[in-house]
Every structure is written in C-alpha cells, then in structure tokens.
Amino acid sequence: SRNNTLYQNNLINNTYYNAYDYYYVNQWDSGIFGNYYSNYDQPSEGCQDINYDGICDTKYTIPGSSTSVDRFPLVEQWGKTTGPVHNINTGINYSKIQVAINDANPGDEIQVESGSYYESLNANKPVILRGIDTGSGKPVINSSYAYYNAITVNGGNSIIDNFEARGSYYGIYVNSNNNSILNNSVLNNEYGVSLSSYSSNSTLRNNSMAGNTYNFVMGVSNIINYDISIDNLVDGRHIYFLKGVNDLNIDESSNAGIVFCLECSNIAIRNTTFHNNSVGIYFYKTYNSIIENVTTSNNSLSGIYLDNSHDTILKNNYANNRYVPGTYTYMNLGDGFYISNSNNISLIKNIARFNGNGIILSVTNDSDLIENTVSDNSKYMGGNGISLYSSNNVTLRGNTVYNNSGDHAGNGIILYNSNNNKIIDNIITKNGNSWSSIGLSLQNSHNNNLNNNSMEYNRIGLYLWSSSRNNITNNKAKNNTNLGLMLEISSNNTLHDNLMSGNYYNFGLGGTIDSDFNNSIDISNTVDGKSIYYLLNVSSQIIDSSFNAGTIYCIKCENITIRDQVITNNSNGIYLFGTNKSKIQNNSIANSIYGLNLVSSDNNTILNNYAQNNSYGFYVRVSRNNILYQNNLINNANNAYEYYSTGTYINSWDNGLVGNYYSNYDSPSEGCNDINGNGICDLRYIIPAEVRV
Predict the structure, then answer these.
(1) pTM of the prediction?
(2) What is the dihedral of CA 284, 289, 292, 296, to 10 degrees?
C-alpha cells in the first residue's frame, strides 16, 4: 500500500510491531501530529521532549522501510478522556498545554487547571489560554531551560489569562498584534513580560511582575497603540502608562515602578527610583516637563528615554544601568540617558555611571549639557561617555567625562554629523581601552567651537576626521597614550593656543588632497613646550635653531630651509606636502611615527639629519628628484621607505660619492662588507619600497 496518511492513532503493546510499513512509502503524520507508540514514549527509548510540546524531538522510523518515518511521534496517548487541560469548544482533554494549542481551532478557549507544567508554550494561532485555580493557585508554566520562554504569543488576537510564568528566559513574550495579557504572575525570569516592536494594540491588565532581571520590556515603536492599566505591577510598584495627561506630579508617594508619558505636557517626576525594566522613564511627544532627583538602575534599554519630546529639563538624576553579574544579558547594558529627535533639552548636574553609554543625543538640537558627570560606562561596540549624532546647536559645558571604555569605542565625547556646537570647559580623562578610543572626537562635524577642554590619559586626546571649519582654542591634551591631537582629512580648521605635552605622539595631521591641508595653525600651539610651525604656501624662509620648533609642516611651499632642529614624539617630525626646492639639514628627529615624511614633494635636498627610534625614519611617497645623503637612520622600525608608481618617481639616496647610514645595514651579516676599508659598503643598499602599479 502506498500514499496513505496515518496520524493520531494509539499503538500500544502490540506483540510484534506497533507499526510496520513493508517496502512502500506512506505518511505517518499529518504534518502537525503523528501517532503514539508505546515502545517510543520514554527518553530511554529515544523520545525526548525538551520543549514539552507533547511531541518527541526526534522522528520515529517505522520498521520495515527505512524511508517511512513519523516526524511528530506523540509522547502520550492521543484523545485521552482525562487530563487537566481542556478545550472548551471541542470537549477534548489533554495532559499537555502545547498539544491542546496545536490541536485547537482559531478562537478556541483552552482552560488549564492548577499545577506545574514544564512546557515552553507558543500560542501560534488565535486562542484563549485561561488558567483555572482548582485549589492550589494559578497554573505554573516553567520552561525549565534558561533560553526557553514560558509563554510566547506569536499568533495574534489571543488572550493569556491567569497564569504564573516563572524560571524561563521570557516569562511572557508577545510578538504579534491585538493580544490581551490579563491577571498573570510573572516571576523570576530573565525577562518578565516583553512586548516586541511587532505587538501593537496589546492590552495589559492586572499583571504582577517581580523578581525578574528585567520585569517589563517594551519596544518603543507603535507604543501609542498599547492599552496598559495602572493595576499592572513591577516589583510591587505601578506601571504608569499615561496618554494625553497634563499637569501631573509623580514622586515616591506615587509608588511608580515605570513611567510612560505619551503626548503629555507639564509632567514633573521627582525624588523617586526606577529599576529592572527596559526603561525607567519614557517620554514620547511630551513637552514642558521636568525630571529631577530620580535614580534609574538596571534597565536594559535606557534609564531615561526622551523621544520627540521638547522643552524638558533633566536635573540631578542618577543613571546606573549596568548588567548584573550572574544573568544572561552581558550584551544588554542600558544607556543612562537617551534623547532622540528632541529639542531644547537641558541636562544639568546629572550622573551617568555604569551604563552601556552615558548620554546620547540623536537628532536633538538647541540643547544644553551642563556640569554632568559621566563615568565608567562600558559596552561592546559602545561605552561612550557623551555622544552627539546629527545634533546641532548643542552646548556641552563643564562636564566631567572619565573612565568610559568599550571594545570598539569607549570615547569620552563624540560628535558625529553634528554642527554648530559648543564644547567648552570639559574635563575628559582616562577614556578607552581599545586602540581607537578617543577623549574628544569629531567625525563629519563642522563649525563647532572647542574651547578650554582638558583631555588627559586617554588613548587619543582630540581627534578630527573629515571635519571642517571648527575653531579649536586653548585646549590641553596631555599624557595620552597614543596621540594628543590629530587632524585627518579635515580642512579649514583654526587651531590657536592649544597645548600638547607628555603624549606618546603629541601632534599629527594627515590628508590625501590639497584641501585637506588648508588649516590655520599658528605658533601659539605647542608640543612639549615648543611651537608647531605650520607653513602654508610660504616661500624662501629659513627655520633654524632660533625657532626651537616642536614639529614642522610645510604645505605647498618652496625654497624652505629647515635646519638644526630637535624634534621628538609626534606623528610627523618634519612633514613636506607639495613642497619643492627645499633643504632639510642637520636635524634630529626621534620617537615619532614618521621622522621625515615627504609627500608629493620634488627637488629637495635632505642631508646630515639624524632619524632615530621612529616607526619610519624617512618616508618618501610619490615624490621625485629628491637627493638624500649623509643622513643617519638609526633603530627605526623602517629606516627608509619609498612609495611610488612604477617608473615615475625616482629619488637619489646618495650624492654619487656617499650615501646614508642605515643601522640595519652596517655589518657583513646584514650584507654590508667594506673590503677596501673606505667606510662605504661594497654593495648598494636597496631601499624598501611599495610599488603601486
């Protein structure tokens, strides 16, 4: 026989085989349910039911044909007339709740008697699940596995009423629309009740969430369509879900556990605490309000979250939303303050400590951050102190930002696509534990004023990338473990009276095209007490020992002489870009990335210089007809290096009589023999090069 479908049969204690399929292929399940086999209903027989859905986790192979299988063998007999789970519409009883759900028609009501049910339920169709107290309390749903949910609502248009959900990853997880969650107790889960961003028009009534790592978690999209009453509790405190409310005060006497204000105005929240939810306070289109002396802790998304809310003051609040050791959410570190699409916001004297990120402003304008303390925030791909994203006309004044860290971030203050801001009198110190961590960073940000900021003991003190027309004045970058102040691909910036000292590399500037170098940098800027000389379109000038330069940049210059300088600890000791017919002579350059860096510079003479302990002693890039001789290149990672296009760029590394000294080419073992004793190696030295075809 072939192409027969056999399912929901009970095959019990038959002498030879409970089922046998000789040769031909038949279907031994309906695609949802299979059959019950008395020889295949125990773990010792191969039937495991880890998710407690009443179906063995592995298929049952029908004897007689290796290709005939029951994909959904039943753990218990089908159609038992007794059991604590009842489909009220069909009159069928079950021992497993999930089996009843799977067998139900859309809209059926399933009643569950008191007891403990070790299942992970998925209401994958519109059903009514109702717990019935038959004498020992609400029925208890416990998935008993750390990453399984007690109850998941995927089908929509369902009711979950009068259950206790405990000991699971999510107690109740709603991932569909138009559901009602009523009269449930949700205890000791990782997440208590969670409404995903795909669960609009949800109704919550009289639910109690307690002892969960995060009691109540809700996506913020479609939030206006939720219906959540005040009789819902988190750790015994009320959920305030306010719509269109005006002129309300909330304080400790209100016994609020979490507050949502949607399209409200003149709301005052003072002198209370919020903890163990997705947010402590959430404002949406809420205006003219104040949040003061509030503590938020251990919230997974943010302590205080403002979305499309304007004219609001946040003052003297404390946010600490760090992961609690021993739970499963090490990636889920909530931010302290998250302000999005909001204007005229004042954050004054707040503390953001031990969060994922401290303070974030995203598309938020005309606001002030004054005298906040932001420290010890840490997160993978985060851990920034204060972040401005596409935010304009914001003033940051007198903030203290320290000890923020992250595996791929961990910046003190970062501006990204943010313009016309004022960054003034801030103390930024000890931020970052990755190579890219920065004290104060501007990326694609323009027309900002940076004045009188102190950046110490960060990886990088101050960094500009692709940022133009910024005014950088009277800042201090000291003792940073990589760079003090760096401009990269950034133009038309003004630097005046900035101090860099004690940094591994004090100052650096780099670019790829002419306009990247159009910056105004005067000699009031110093590195280790010496002036930065930044020459732009200058001709016929001598820089000698009387200048006592800390670093020298010649941009599109001609006939410049640089001699008798001692330069250390910079990105570039001496940098020539588009500079021709000049002489670099008798200088000592040490402990920099590039001792001498020639880029697109021709017909220059380089002689009698010392370059020692740099990453590159001399670096020559797409430059031609330069002559370099009688220089001492000592213990640099790369003593000399050229980068050029094939057959186009030719430089002379000797004057025809004498070349240079290379510490990696001064002994026979390195290839340098001097058989005639004239002090010149008998074989030429090949300059390491990268040839770009």
Answers:
(1) 0.88
(2) -10
Give the pairing of strands 265-275 and 302-307: unpaired
The predicted-structure confidence for 387-405, as pLDDT tens digits, reads as follows 999 999 999 999 999 999 8
Rounded to whole angstroms, how far apart are CA atoms 483 and 468?
20
State the CB neighbour count (10 A cutoff) for residue 76: 15
Q: Which residues lie below 8 Å from residue 87, measured CB to CB, with a gap of 6+?
A: 93, 94, 100, 103, 104, 108, 109, 110
Alpha-carbon gap, residue 416 to 391, rounded angstroms: 8
Residue 112's Cβ-count burial label (10 Å; 0-12, 13-18, 19+) is: buried
pLDDT digits (tens, 9 = 90+) for 593-629: 999 999 999 999 999 999 999 999 999 999 999 999 9
**pLDDT for position 146:** 65
Cα distances (angstroms) measured from residue 301 to each of 196, 317, 370, 408: 13, 17, 24, 19
With cut-offs at 50, 70 and 90, classify the pLDDT of residue 76: confident
Contact 135, 115 (CB under 8 A): no
pLDDT at 80: 64
Residue 135: count of CB within 10 angstroms of its CB: 7
**pLDDT, tens digit (0-9, with 9 covering 90-100), for 531-552:** 999 999 999 999 999 999 999 9
Cα 1 from Cα 24, distance rounded (Å)? 6
Q: Which helix (H) or strand (E) holds 286?
A: none
Tokens 């929240």, residue located: 269
- 81 falls in which pLDDT band (50, 70, 90)? low
Contact 363, 331 (CB under 8 A): no
Residue 400, phi then psi, degrees to nearest 5: -110, 120
Q: Percent of the chain having pLDDT more than 90?
A: 86
SS (H, E, C) 380-399: CCCCCCEEEECCCCCEEECC
* Closest to 296 in 3D by CA, of 313, 278, 318: 318
Rounded to the nearest 10 degrees, how much is the dihedral formed by the CA atoms of 620, 624, 627, 631? Answer: 0
Beta strand extents in 446-581 (DSSP E only): 449-451, 454-456, 460-465, 471-473, 476-478, 483-488, 494-496, 499-501, 505-510, 520-521, 526-527, 530-536, 539-543, 549-555, 558-563, 566-568, 572-577
